[in-house]
Predict the 3D structure of the following.
Amino acid sequence: MIFVATIVLAVILPDLTGAVMLGGALAMMLTRILTTEQAYSSIGWNSIFLVAGMLPMGIALTKTNAAGLMANEVVAVFGGYGSLALLAALFIVTTLLVQAVNGAVVAAVIAPVAIRIAEQTQINPRALAMGVALATSMAFITPLGHPVNVLVMSPGGYNFRDYMRIGIPLSLILFAVAMIFLPLFWRL
């Protein structure tokens, strides 16, 4: 009942989803449905420390102007082809990186580059940032990009080829959809 109540409240109050979920977890612990040891052991500490360690890298890329240098290179190669080409290049690079690195880490590294590209080319930064955000969730091509992919690999009897066989066509379809709809919702 606590779980159902938590989900219903999260749907009703989407701005407070984090607080609602925390409240649900605390209610489960207070009613002794879940022990503190179970809650603590279920946290993926490796992911938390990885993201926490990479967020300063995103800040460092901005402060040292490394993001600016990377943005200059992307603009030099793709800038002559227009804003859609820049969006596509960022989307593809992000999608490829997320196949081997956690999406939050990739976002922390690529987002400052996207913002710099937007500043240099007078493109709507929201469009490029949304492209990066969407691309960071496209970890379909390998099992390494998302913990769930790794978790189901062995029990499902999957191998790398299975992920590629399904992931590449799915990524291409979602890329096409993103390239059509991103400029419609966030003008380039």
Remarks:
- The chain has a mean pLDDT of 85.
- The first helix runs from residue 2 to 12.
- Residues 2-41 form one domain.
- Residues 22 and 157 are 35 Å apart (CA to CA).
